[in-house]
Amino acid sequence: MSTVDTSAKRSALAPFGKPFAAAGGVLGIVAALLPWVTFVLNDGNWPDKSTLQFFDAPFLVTGFRWHVLLLGILVLVAAFAPIPSRGRVIRALGWGLTLVSFVNSAYITVKGGGLGAITALDGATAFGGVVGLVAGVLTILAGYGIGIEPVGEWKFKISTPVAYLVLLLSFGAVLYAVAAMLTTGGVGSANPYAGAIFLSFLGFAAGVLGALSGVGYVRWLSALSEQHRVFSVIVLAACALLLPFTEAGNEYWMTVAANIGIYAATAIGLNIVVGLAGLLDLGYVAFMGIGALVAANFSGAATAYFGFDLPFPVAAVIAAVVAGIFGAIVGSPTLRVRGDYLAIVTLAFGEIFTRSAQNDIGGFTNGSNAIPGVPALSLFGAEFNKSISIGAVKLPAGVLYYVLIVLLVAATMAVFANLKFSRIGRAWIAIREDEDAARAMGIRTGKMKILAFLIGAMLAGLAGAVFAHKNGTVSYESFKFLESVTLLAAVILGGMGSIPGAVLGAALLFVLPEKLRDFEDYRLMIFGLALILIMRFRPVGLIPDAHRRAEMVERADENAEEAHVEAKKA
Amino acid sequence: MSTPVLEARDVSMVFGGLKALKGVTLTLEEGKIVGLIGPNGAGKTTFFNCLTGLYTPTTGEVLLKGNVLPGDPAKVTDAGVARTFQNIRLFPSMTVLENVMVGRHVRMKQGPLASLFHGPAYQRGEKAARERSRELLAFVGLNGVDDELSRNLPYGDQRRLEIARALATDPAVLLLDEPTAGMNPQETEATQQLIFRIRDTGVSVVVIEHDIKFIFGLCDSVSVLVQGELLVEGTPEVVRADPRVVEAYLGKPPEEVQHDVEAAAAAEEEQA
Ligand SMILES: Nc1ncnc2c1ncn2[C@@H]1O[C@H](COP(=O)(O)OP(=O)(O)OP(=O)(O)O)[C@@H](O)[C@H]1O
Ligand SMILES: [Mg+2]
Is the CB of residue B188 less than 8 Å away from at least one CB of chain A? Predict the structure, then answer.
């Protein structure tokens, strides 16, 4: 159905493709240079002096207007440079322009009092937003006019040193983008427009990422990084370790980034169960909870079950093992039930965990009073939650936790990658694809599925142990159904079976609420809406696994072939 | 007489009220190719499923080299019986090479720890598995498509890939369920040659096929299954001449079938 739509659009728009792209690009640049607000809003200047009164330096573009300018230029480049899948790239850039313009215009309208603020009022004019929107829509149409071809494929091979350089630069850019994403709009409520700035930034990032993926760069890069797995993990970890030295290097963002890291590590574990083995787990966060509780009870906290404290590494290992045992127990019904029924079993387990933790069954959880006062970790006398200085450089508080968690994420990634490309990983994927065929290949599917649950749960338990010390309080409240669903959403959103996908998914899902404090009550709604939109327009996830991507391709050709065979038989 | 490599004794299978198999007995001598033919719904695939442990037969037993096979597909494969499926069941989003490497699963020794740490022994095992898989792909005639996704292969190639994947388990017995369905005459001919070559490597084969020309040209012995019952069993010549087969198998007037059969015989002579 959708193919018919696009082809119809293409035929009508075909002659306008390039002219529209040119017009869209130029208008985008113009929009960046125009004022966007006719007066100063109550909460102060709309970001980066895009208010008319402050429009004294029109060619000094900053903030979102810099993004609009950049998108305009990119549209022009994409329209005239020889690139693969031009239509796709231009459409993505058009969406970027549209989103940035829409977010800013809508927000000004709502906050500043009506449409006058973004058009003309009292003799002043501010058509930046309108022109930006027109540019965006024109560019999207241009994309359809040029035609949506398959994502570009880059066939050429490069030598290892060049590959290393490319990976280094690309991951460096990712680091920069992450730092920018974290810090746009500033901390908490310091900036009245933080939420809008952030959303606008996401629009820009989505446009650029879409263009890069359309032109084939993302696919090529992910193939490259799978080829050089070890190097990629090391570089990524190194890049992550540099984050404290960027703008994001303050206590607030270190804490947020560390929390993201904990959930990212957990999401990677879940990705083994869901993404590789194809087993839907709706109660996964319970394993993280179990890990956290075990660690808390061995931490020497006042209300801990055991009156002594174990060194953290020992406690962490015990936490992982206990969580793993529970994982194997929960996984054992997979021998009998499949699909939706298994999902229900895991859902029930998650619920059992919360209820028993709430009621302090066994005395391990301290019920609704939680276990407070879990001491911060320390190494050689340096407490992980204090700031430290290396020579002359003073690093923000929480940086040691951040480092620990980066290492944790890197380790989980390595575990995931190594397993994925092994006999066991292949068996999991085979089970996901066709369980009966997998058994016919000699795979003991029952054992393998329990193993997936066990390893996934161990990783979650480990992350939970770090969580306990980092947050200082362990309460069942942190491990409820909503968290399980969010983790699952992170895995699906990022791309099932893909490692960078799980990290990106976790980052987005756990940063968004932080950034959208502005919108308070609408937070979950925006969140859900975004998820629905992404699943509608990019069902493979943001950074899909190379294999998974193919699976989502229309099955029409296959059906046609089956019909052919039937016809031949008859 | 030596023990047959595969022996099904009096296998029956009942689904609710439906008797899909009624005491079927089949013997496969080492190094032979046995054909299994019969009309749609005769129970051929069901018989394969009973042989491989996917179904547990209501009565009867299956022996491999004199030992009773366990009722678990994974263990049956481990013991040395591999199969392909009538409706191709590859792992669609794995590459061609990975599909065959899944077939090596049961012959590889890596446990969870080796898979986690990728030590030297692990690397050697992977390399060996990869090489063996490439050999098998070349053996079935699939070259230069290692990194394609299996679902993107043409139909005939998917069937051959399924055979390579089954061979990767180092089977003593290979069960092929309609290996030429949907193939053109050239591909069918190539498949026939492939099955001969497989037999020549010492693997015994059972083939289900509707194409009687193909079966008579290929098999040392043919069994005819009709409504769950073994109707006739014998060399192609014997089966071809049996009037009950002619009548029951295709349900056509005998002359017409006779014509088909003669055409098949003629084609066969042409080849020779
Ligand atoms: N799992 C099952 N449950 C119930 N009935 C089944 C099952 N599997 C097969 N049957 C029935 O058993 C009978 C034999 O089916 P089977 O698939 O073995 O036939 P076949 O000889 O392979 O036919 P074809 O040539 O069409 O492949 C059919 O009537 C089928 O409906
Ligand atoms: Mg059949």
Answer: no
User: For the packed helices A194-214 and A499-515, what is the interaxial angle rounded to 10 degrees?
Assistant: 160
The pTM of this model reads 0.83
Q: What Cα–Cα distance (Å) separates residue B231 from each residue in A62, B37, B214?
A: 85, 10, 20
Chains A, B: CB contacts under 8 A, how many? 117
In terms of domains, do B223 and B251 share one? no
CA distance A556 to chain B (A): 12
Q: Name the fold adopted by A249-561.
A: ABC transporter involved in vitamin B12 uptake, BtuC (1.10.3470)
pLDDT single digits (tens) A249-274: 778 888 888 888 898 899 999 999 98
Summarize pLDDT for A509-563 with one digit per residue, the tens: 777 777 776 666 666 776 777 777 777 776 677 776 655 444 443 333 344 444 4
Measured CA distances, A62 to A55, A108, A311 (Å): 12, 17, 50
Calpha distance A515→A187 (Å, rounded): 9
CA distance A311 to chain B (A): 25
Is B227 a member of any domain? Answer: yes
Specify the number of domains making up chain B. Answer: 2
Hey, how many other C-beta atoms are within 10 angstroms of the C-beta on A188?
12
CA of B44 to the centre of ligand 1 (A): 8
pLDDT tens-digit readout, A114-169: 787 788 887 778 888 999 999 999 999 999 888 888 877 777 778 888 888 888 88
- Residue boundaries of the structural domains of chain A: 2-225, 249-561
Domain hosting residue B268, numbered range: 243-272
Residue B17 lies in a domain: yes
